Structure formats: structure tokens, C-alpha cells
Amino acid sequence: MKPVIIVSTFPSKQSVTSIANQIVKKKLAACVNITKISSVYTWKGKIENQDEYLALFKTTKKNQLTLKKELEKLHPYDVPEIAEINVESINQPYMKWLVDSTN
Predict the structure, then answer these.
(1) Domains of the chain
(2) What is the rounded (10 degree) CA torsion for 71, 98, 1, 75?
(3) What's the 3-state SS for 47-73?
(4) Which residues contact 74 (CB under 8 A, 6 or more apart)?
(5) pLDDT for the residue 84
(6) Inter-helix orientation angle 64-74/13-25, to 10°
(7) How far apart, in whole angstroms, are the C-alpha atoms of residue 63 and residue 78?
(8) Taking the alpha carbons of 44, 75, 10, 100 in that order, is the dihedral positive or negative?
(9) Torsion of CA 76, 81, 82, 88, to 10 degrees
């Protein structure tokens, strides 16, 4: 079993918290870390400077596709970021917890 982190940004704490709770309840992720960030990006030809919330969804390779599909379905953005980070190394006690929490 391999660990995977899915990264996404959200417009509000309420939206990310609601989605994170649904994802963990469905056991698609063992944990979701949420932090407030400032983002600079272009949208519809204009430079935007916005506060957003970055979420790290910690899961396993087995759950990655289902988790991504669920994020696409629930995400409030028209064009959500749903990026995958494959983890090369992780301590075994954490990996066991991750697998146990997502099975």
C-alpha cells in the first residue's frame, strides 16, 4: 500500500471543513490538514489576490481515484485544483494508521 496526498484549495473555511468532514467520514482520507493561505493567480484575464484555504487530503493509492472524483463533485470552484503528491517514504506506524483509517 502506498501513501498519497491530494492537494486542493478552497474559497472559505466553511467549504473546506464541510468537504473534509464528508471525505473523512467516507474513509476516503484518514486526515485533512487545512491552513489559510494567500493566493495570487489569473482568472478571466485579471490578476487576483485572494485568501484561500489549502487542504492536504492524506490517503492511500487505493482510494486516490475515488477521492479525486468526490472532490470534483463537491468542490465549489468552477476549475478546482486537485493535485496528487506521491509519497516516496513514510514512517511505518503512520502508514499503518493511514491504512486502518481508510479501510
Answers:
(1) 3-102 (3.30.70.120)
(2) 0
(3) EEEEEEEEEEEEEEHHHHHHHHHHHHH
(4) 19, 22
(5) 96
(6) 140
(7) 23
(8) negative
(9) -150
The DSSP letter of residue 97 is: H
Share of the chain above pLDDT 90, in %: 97
Return the SS3 of 1.
coil
Q: What is the DSSP string of 5-46?
A: EEEEEES-HHHHHHHHHHHHHTTS-SEEEEEEEEEEEEETTE
Contact 67, 27 (CB under 8 A): no
Query: Cβ–Cβ contacts within 10 Å for residue 43, how many?
Result: 11
What percent of the chain lies above the pLDDT cut of 70?
100
